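Deliverable D5.2: sample structural annotation.
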Amino acid sequence: MEIYHMVMYWGCIYRCRPLPSGSRTPSVWPPSANVTSWTSRQLAFDSVRISDVSLHSIIARCPVLECLLLDGRISFTCLRINSSSLRSIGMSYGELVIEDAPLLERLLQLEPHNGISILVILAPKLVTLSCFSGISVSNKLVFGTTVIQDLRAGSITTGVCSIKILAIGIYNLSVDLVINLLRCFPCLEKLYIQSRVSVDKNLWRRKHRILLKSLDIRLKTVVLKNYRGIKSQVNFATFFVLNAKRLELMRFEGGTNNENQIYIAEQRRLLQLEKQASGGAQFYFTTGRGCQHRYNLTHIRHVRDLCTTDPFE
C-alpha cells in the first residue's frame, strides 16, 4: 500500500515516495506534472502552508483515499470533505466540514492545545470520536442541530446515535459534563476519560435524581485515566458503578498505587462495587498504559495508525 506524506520544502508542496516501514521522516522527490490521480489509500500532511484550493485538489486526486492525517498546524482556512471512500480522519488544528462521507468511521482530534471546529453534515457510519476541552483554546463540534462547545452541549433535540466510542480529554473532571455528553451520544458503548485536575466535588445523587429515572446508559466499557483515588474521582466513578446497568468493564489507570493491594481494596470499598448496577462488571486497577503523553488520547503516530478500530487502547 502506498503512503504519501506532504511536507513544506522551500515554500512548495512536494509529493513524497512511500515511507519505509517505521519511518516518520519522508524523503522528498519532485511531483510529476502529468499526475491526475493517485492510488494512495493513506495521505498525511505535517505542518504545511497550503491554500484551501490546493488541499482540496490534492485530496480530490485520491479517489480511493481511506485515511487522512492532518498533523501539526496547517495553514488552510477550511477543509470540506466529500469522499465516498474516506474512513478515518485525524487532525490537530483547523476547521473541518464533513459534507458527505458515507463510509467515515473515525474522527479524531489529536492535539489538545490547538483549537478546532468541526461540522458534520452527513457521516452516517461515524462510530469513533475523540475531542478535547482545554482552558486556553476553544473547540466546537456540530452534528446537525446539536452544538457542542468545549464538550458542553446546549439544548439537545436529537442525539447522535451513530457514535459508539468516545474519548475525551478535559481539564477538570466533571460528572455534569459527562452526563450531558451521554445525552448527546445516547448509544455510547465505550468511554475513555482523561483529565488533568479534579476540582469539582462531583456530587450527582440529588442533582440528577430526576434525570436518572429516564437516562438510558448503554455504556459497556469505561476507562478513567490519571486516576489517583481522591474523593472527587471516587464520586465521579461511582456514577457509573451505581447507574450503568450494562457495564461490563471499568478500568482505572493511575500511578504505582494501583499495584498496591491495600490501596485497591480500599478503593473497591469506596467505590461501592458490591452495589454495582450491572451485577457482572469487572473492575481493574492498572498503572498508566499506552499513551505516554499526559494529555494525549490516541496512539496515532503515523497515518497507518488511523486504520486501528479502537485507537485509544
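Annotation notes: The longest strand covers residues 165-172. The radius of gyration is 21 Å.
The annotation will be released with the project's public dataset once the embargo ends.
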